[in-house]
Amino acid sequence: MRSLKVRITLLVGISLLLLLAAQAVGLRIIPGALVQDYVVTRLEHDADTLYGRLVDGTEPVELFSRTVGLIYETPLSGHYFRIMTGDTVLRSRSLWDTDLTLEPVPPGEQRISRAPGPAGQSLLIYSRGYRVQGEPVTIAVAEDLSAMESTVARLERSLLTVMLLGVGLVLLIQYLIVQRALRPVDAAVQACRRLEAGGAAPMQVQAPREIEPLVEAVNRLIRHHGLRLERTRRALGNVSHALKTPLAVMSQITDELAERGDRAAADALRAQLQAIRNTVERELHRARLAGRDHPGAGFDARAELEPLVDALRRLYGERVSIALDIEGEPAAVDSEDMLELFGNLLDNACKWARSRVRVRVRQGVGVEAEIEDDGPGVEEDKLARLGQPGMRLDESTPGHGLGLSIVHDVVSQYGGEIRYGRSTELHGLRVQVRIPG
């Protein structure tokens, strides 16, 4: 669970649910306690009234039900009393042919209990011990709470429903607030994704104070990498330009040696000069590579390869037909690196092809490419040697053997892979390249 939005939403949701659970417990306890206190007060009053009639002694006990209330006369009314004195038990007429099983209560004490009543009623019973003319008397008064409990249950359900709706509304409002509060963070994330896709410009976002240092650090890193790569490429250009004059002078000296008749020395020196040129050119190409550690400008195969293919068509004329098939969106790899890679692969394919070259490119998360030609191909035992510096399989073809070596350097710089084989359709060399995103 790494999402900040999810964390905040879950924490608030759990807090609200705990609060709701506490309120639900309160709803189960408080209304029931209030109802019981109210009913007990009324039952206590009726018990005291019955006790008063017993003490007065002027009224027959059979008429007590009428004195306390006619509801005690109505059968199964839900209001009952029971008077126990010695072996004598007096029951309210409302009990009809049923009875309440109760234990005597010592004088001066009271007891509140729950028990099932007639017709499945749920009774709250208030029992109290008295002393009348020196004899212990227990008066128990009961009331059916079924209707009240049903009403309380409906109230609880209604309140819980309202509370759940309230929690849902609060969660929704909280989510919208978090969305709005983290909008600058989303903008920073989108800026980072644009950077990953090849946008080398610093992030321009109004970030919260907490992540401003992160945005500033990323922007400094972008500027630092850009300046370093630019300085490196400029310095390499200067080195290349500076080496041209000494190498030209040495070539002239070599020609003079040959004119003087010292051809062996001239050939040896010429070979060494060519080796120096090859080494310098290869290292210059290697140093120019940006690699995956530098964001650079993203690579769009459609925009970059079509002009390259047009240039190769003009260079090789009608002798070679180049078919280009590109799918996907621009990839987060350096454009100059990819042009270096495809330029060497396509030039090599056109150089060896009889009439056809086919290029397939799939871009998006990285780049995958397949280049095939209808040339003579490469023998199986020599495929593993392709890409070695200075390796040329045919000395009659112009070149210094650096093209595929540079391709290998680019692929290695990105941690990709390259495979050589024979094309099943064109029967020439097939090169498959994968550059991870």
Automatic annotation (TrEMBL):
GO terms for cellular component: plasma membrane. Residues 238-437 form the Histidine kinase domain. Gene3D superfamilies: 1.10.287.130, Histidine kinase-like ATPase, C-terminal domain. InterPro entries: HATPase_C_sf, HATPase_dom, His_kinase_dom, HisK_dim/P_sf, Sig_transdc_His_kin-like_C, TCS_sensor_his_kinase. It is found in: Membrane. The keyword 4Fe-4S does not apply. Its EC number is 2.7.13.3. Keywords: Kinase, Membrane, Phosphoprotein, Transferase, Transmembrane, Transmembrane helix. It catalyses: ATP + protein L-histidine = ADP + protein N-phospho-L-histidine. Pfam families: HATPase_c. It is an enzyme of class 2 (transferase). The chain crosses the membrane at residues 158-178. It comes from the Bacteria. One of its GO terms (molecular function) is phosphorelay sensor kinase activity. SMART domains: HATPase_c. This is histidine kinase. It comes from Thioalkalivibrio sulfidiphilus (strain HL-EbGR7).
